Amino acid sequence: MAAEAAVIAEEPPAPDAAPPAPAAEPAKAKGKPEPAKAKGKAEKGKKEKKGAKDATAATGAGDGPSVAAHPRAARAVAQAKSWGALIGFVLGGYLALPTMTLAEAGARALMAGIACYLATWAGAVFVWRRLVVIELKGKEQELAAAHAAALARAQLPSGPPSPTAPSRPG
Fold this sequence. Notes:
Order of helices and strands: HHHH
Distance between the termini: 78 Å
Number of helices: 4
Radius of gyration: 34 Å
């Protein structure tokens, strides 16, 4: 920390001045960067990029609304994938068992489970994309209606003058 404070406290060199010569250290070879510093900088850059990418995916700020960012949609897609894989595995194994050996039937059951998993995943994402868009449009219409109602209330007169309040002569 003391070295960092010393570096921060130094004034930056003038633009015309040549950069200062590096201090000679007997343990280091010339021209080779220190591995710990180079690795730290590379990892820091990767972490920053990954964090920005994760934040974009989580908020759905990419191309439009995200199924993964929607809480009900994400749960429903995960549930559909698991049920699809289980049903495909059981059905594939049941249909393959009478005509094949146990090992072959197991392999066919795994392939059927994988195929049903992928098909169910694609179908669930297809359906939930549309449902999320419909839900967003509904919320948008509700907000527009509430905004229009608020504007209408603001434009109405405050009401008739009260008879008990004395009126000022004009």
